[in-house]
Structures are given as structure tokens and as C-alpha cells.
Amino acid sequence: MNRLILERWRQKHRTVAYPAQPPALPDRLRGAPELNPDKCRADCTQCVAACPTGAITRVNGVLQLDMGRCLFCGDCQAACPTGAIRLTHDHRMAVRRREDLVVTGRERPLAVALDAKIKSLFGRSLKLRQVSAGGCNACEADTNVLTTVVFDLSRFGIRFVASPRHADGLLITGPATENMALALQKTYDALAEPRLVIAVGACAISGGPFAGHAEVRNGATALLPVDLFIPGCPPHPITILDGLLRLLGRLEDI
Amino acid sequence: MSLLTRHLAPIANDRIPLLPMKVFRQEILENIAAGQRLSVLAGTPATAGNVRLVAALADDRSGGLRLLAALAGESYPALTPDCPQAAGFEREIAEQWAVIPEGHPWLKPLRFHRAYRPGRDAWGRGDAPLAPSVMEFFRVAGEGIHEVAVGPVHAGIIEPGHFRFQCDGEEVLHLEISLGYQHRGIERALLDGPHPLTIHHMETLAGDTTIGHAVAYCQAVEALAGCVVPARARALRAIALELERLANHTGDLGALAGDVGFLPTASYCGRLRGDYLNMTALLCGSRFGRGLVRPGGVMFDVDQARLDTLLTRLATTFRDTAGAVNLLWDSASVMARFENTGAVAKPLAEELGLVGPAARASGCARDVRRDFPTGAYQGMTITPALGEDGDVLARAQVRWQEIQQSVALVRTLATTLPPGPCHEPCGALQPEATVVSLQEGWRGEIAHMATTDSAGHFARYKVVDPSFHNWLGLAMALRNQQISDFPLCNKSFNLSYCGHDL
């Protein structure tokens, strides 16, 4: 018993100060992409060619990067001869609408809070059921880590629950494999309305590196109405937490 | 006769002995009986729509690798009745190639997808969509016998799989595990590669083993390209492999504590696992090591300041890990739940061809880092962490021993990091050749087998995640256990669903 108490004292209090303080992120983190159209040469397509998932396109001469397909590998940044494309250190990437994941040279929108009525239901208590539908266990692991003492998700009133019957929303990872499509649909159907759907990671948003495979449905987006998109491969836990808190309207001034 | 070679030695495809099926089977059975292991047994495309079976047998004692092949025809006499470690491989061969291993005692689909040869099916299924786990399960009948079905959607944040228990009261008589829910068609997508997406498929085929599979893949293509990886890159890869082991083993010990309701270790290790992941992120920006390992070396170098930060963090995190983990062995309530739970005896572990900590916990001294060393592991002394009883306690203790070894390895590697570049260009692949690449991932032996065509593209790329060997070990561990011990046994193996399903 003494050892238990001693060890408890030695292990200290470890919950991060975020969101009251800025998060501590790795200095090499590859966060939100930033495009600088002024530096981009109209005749150059090197970043388009370098992108393994086709996330970068040129539409009417304007460069676009779809964060929903981006693996954040940084190959575009390495290929760009003029520094027009860059992965910043910004962890904030979650959005409410699929099209808002498309980065151009303009200001990037962030997820807005649920409307007042839904927020009054879920704002102080949001119970989520997680379903991995072909996820590689990286998005799952960095979602699960939110429940540890480091992030202490329950201090925000958010919890992961065992049954969809107890849940207000579904947090989906993975490209929605053919073999999980039915289980995913049944889990969604078991949620009481109103219900939320959160897609975490490139796979759940677009199919990620598996997009176009006959074995997958190219993400949750194709199957269910998604209320929150959190891009990344995988997103950093703070990026996921940022998305959840924005959805609940708890980060409006950060 | 089979060809005795080594892993990472490219072999011209026509030099792999193509044996009559009878000799092929006999060679495999004799070498397995002599203590070798089936690292790979896979179908590969042959001329005129034929399927060529290729086997790679690993000899842990000599570090040798035996390659042999045979044409499968439409069916062949199964190896599994005489060689249980072939069970999963032969189900896979039937599913992928619609070749029937005759006499396989349990010939069922593994992943529920259509065969690679269009219009053919080992089970004669029609065109209707395939539904996972819709099949006959092994049934026990009798008074008081009941069946429990769990999954694919489980209670926690965990990947999907289906578990079917046959129980007499609380006692599990038999557990059948049906997977395939995570199947993303990775091996099919690797054909004709390397593609721009290939390295990303390697990094995501089992995300918690990003480094392990990326290194196994890079070793394979570097061998085929004749690319010599700089010493600095080899050391940085080994550091990343050990950090991956540290994160997962620490997380597993915490999860084992959680499953017996011992919350102090569960919460400390939950935090500490993240601290090890953050060390990988210190190297390359990604907690899982995405973007670090590429053919030719690594994409991120470290300066002395970064190495010093790594070593400082490692020291404090390890001290806290020791404090957290040692509480387990001091707590009678934990030990009572760990001891004699889910035991796999050594002969069974040998028979099933288990790998990694699960094998070592049963007393099988096998570790790819020692037996088939590559990169920076060459010249390092690795002593496999061994248990005896093969129970949950042994699997936990092996992890703790390996955590201590990994910390020592990272320290050695980081303090003796060779100077020089960390990346060399990696050119085109040798055509018409096959290479087997082995690497000790944190779950055990990762085996990749790449076969190129006349243009130097992948005619076949076979991935064997350690979980592929070990899922049957979990099923056997549950025999005659309380069903309430399933979560604990499951966590003590902590196998990959997506690594199996590919």
C-alpha cells in the first residue's frame, strides 16, 4: 500500500493545460497545409505529381489541396521549387463541411459550433460510440489516448461508451470497408436521434490511401451524413480534441 | 531439393526450385519437424493461369532461409493436417487463388473477398455479395452448452473482429475467431508496384507497426535495387523500431492492468505510452513514425541537441515506466489474475509457429533481431526475453523484460550514432527476382516476400504480419478458461486485425 501511494506521488499530475494554454506539439509536426498563390508558378505541376493520393489539383489555374485526402507526408512541400506550399505547425484542422477541407490561398475556415438547440442537448454531455471500419489502428489509438490522464476527455463532458444505445454520436475511423459497411450502418441505426457523425482521419473522410479500392466505400462520407471532419493520417490527438471542442462551441475564441 | 539461402538475398525466380508437389510437401514437413518455421507460404501467379506455391522456411538456429516452390494445380494435398502452422496460409491460398488444399481440417475464408483468379471460388459461392462471418462455425452440442457471439463491433475503441465461443457454463470449450472486416485489398494494390502509394500502404497496413512494416518493405526493395543504406540511417531505423516496441509494450501492460481493474498502472502506462510515441514524433513529427522510413534510408536526421533531448526524455519516461510496471508484480490481486490464465504450452506454441513475445512467453527462443539480424542489429547482442509458462503473466513479464532491453538498445544506438548521410537514392528493382525480408516488429516476426516481373515491378508482394501466426494461439489459449478472462487473454496477445486482414 505504501508503494502504491509513493508511486502515485511520484507519477504526479499529468493532465495537459490545453485548452487554457497552447498545446505542446512536436516541432516537426506536419500540420495544416498553407498555399501561397503569389509564389506558385502557373506552369508548374510538381506538387500535383508528387502527391500520392491526388489531394492536390489545379482548378482553372488555381491550386487546391484537399485535406480530406491528404496524408500529411510533406512530399508536395519537398517537390515545390518556390515554397508556395507548406505544411504549417497549425494543429487546428477540423471543419463542419466537406468542402471546407479544400485549402486554397484564402483564409481557412474552422469548425463552427452546433446550432443552439443541438448544443443545448450535447454541449455539456456528449457520449460517443467509436467504430473502426478498416482503420489501421493509428486513428483509433490517438482517439483512445484522449481518454488517458493526459487529455482527460471527461473533463469536457465527452466520453466514449460501449453501446450505440447510450451514444449521442458515432466517431468513425477507417475507409469504411465493404466488410464493415453493414455493421457500421447497424451501429448508426441503433443511435437515438438526434445523432452526430464524426469522421476522423483521411480514410474515414475520403478512403485515404485506399480510396478507389473495390474493397472499401471511400470513407464514412459515402454512407452517412457527417457533422464533423477531422483530417490527418492520423490526426494528432490535439487536432481531434480541437475538433470535438469546436463542435461543442468551447473554443470559439482560440 | 529446396534452396538454402538467407533473407534479403535476391534470388532469380527460376532459381527457386520448382519441385513435384510430393517432394515440396515432404521437404516442408521434414524441415518443420527439424525445428524450422513456416515464415511464408503463398500462392504466386505462374504461367497459363497456374498458381505456384512458394514457401520460405526460417531456421532460427542458423539464420538460414529455405526457399522452395511447386505448382498447385486446382488442388493439392493440404499440409495443415501434418503441420498446423500452415492452417492460416492454406486458407489464404484457397481464398486468394481458388486452389483447394485437399484434406484441410478447417477450410474457411479468412477475409471474405473474391479470388484473384476471376470467376473461380474455392467454395463455389455465386455472385451474391460475400458477407463476413456468414459461414458454419464449429459447434459444441449437449446439455448446458451455449454459444456466445461477440463483435464485429466491440465495447471499446478497438478494431472489428468476430469471436464465437462454445461454452459449458462459464468455461470456454472452444473459441473460433473470424476476421476480414478490415480487409482493404492491400496486396492486390501492391501489384505492379512500387507505386507512389506503396510506402503509404506499408505504413498503414498495421498503423501501430508503421515502422516495422516500413522497414521490412524498405529492406526488401533495397535488396532488390542493390542499394546500400548508410550506417546512420540503419541506426535511426533501429531506434525507431525500439521506440515503437516501447510504446506498444508499455500500452499493453497498462491495458492488462486495466483489464484486471488495477487502475494505477493502467493510468500511468496510458500516459507513458504516449510519451514514447512523442519520442518518435521528436524524430519525425509523427507519433507513429509516418514519413520517417523510406527506401534508401530515413527522411529525418537528428542533431546532437535532438539526441540529447531524446535520451533525457527516455531516462525520465523509463523511470516512471519502471515504477508503474513494478506495482503489478507487487500486487497479489494482479498476480492472481495473471498467473495460470490463458496458458499456451511450449509444444503447442512450436506447433502453431507462434512468433514474438507470445512465442517467447512460452519458452520459444526466437527473435528476428538475434536470429536474422539486419541493419544496426548486426553486431549487437540481443538475448530473447523468455518466459516459461506461456500464460498472461509470462506474456506480461516478457514485455517488461523487452522494455528494459529496448531502452538499453536505444541508449547504445543514440550514443554511438555513426556520422554521415541518412539517405541514399534507391534505384530500379532487379527483374525476375524474389526476396524475403524479415524484421522483428513489436508483435514478432514481420515477413515480406517480394517477387518482381521482367520489368522489375511487383508480380506478387506477400505480407505476413506477426498476428497472422498468433491469432490461432489466442484461440487455443482460451480453451478451458473462464469466458470472463477473454478480454485479459486477448489483451495479453494484443494482435492486429488490420495487419491480418490486409
Break the fold down into its secondary structure elements and pairings:
The complex is a heterodimer of chains A (254) and B (502).
Chain A: H1 2-11, E1 33-35, H2 46-50, E2 56-59, E3 62-66, H3 75-79, E4 85-87, E5 102-103, H4 116-122, E6 126-132, H5 138-144, E7 158-160, E8 169-173, H6 181-189, E9 196-200, H7 201-206, E10 228-230, H8 237-247
Parallel strand pairs in A: 6-7, 6-8, 8-9, 9-10
Antiparallel strand pairs in A: 1-4, 2-3, 3-5
Chain B: E1 3-5, E2 11-12, H1 21-33, E3 37-45, E4 51-59, E5 64-71, E6 75-77, H2 87-97, E7 100-102, E8 145-150, E9 162-168, E10 171-178, H3 186-190, H4 198-204, H5 210-225, H6 231-259, H7 263-284, E11 293-294, E12 297-298, H8 304-330, H9 332-338, H10 346-352, H11 356-361, H12 368-371, H13 392-415, E13 433-441, E14 444-452, E15 458-464, H14 466-477, H15 486-493, H16 497-501
Parallel strand pairs in B: 6-7
Antiparallel strand pairs in B: 1-5, 2-13, 3-4, 4-5, 8-9, 9-10, 11-12, 13-14, 14-15
Helix pairs in contact in B: 4-5, 5-6, 6-7, 6-13, 6-15, 7-8, 8-13
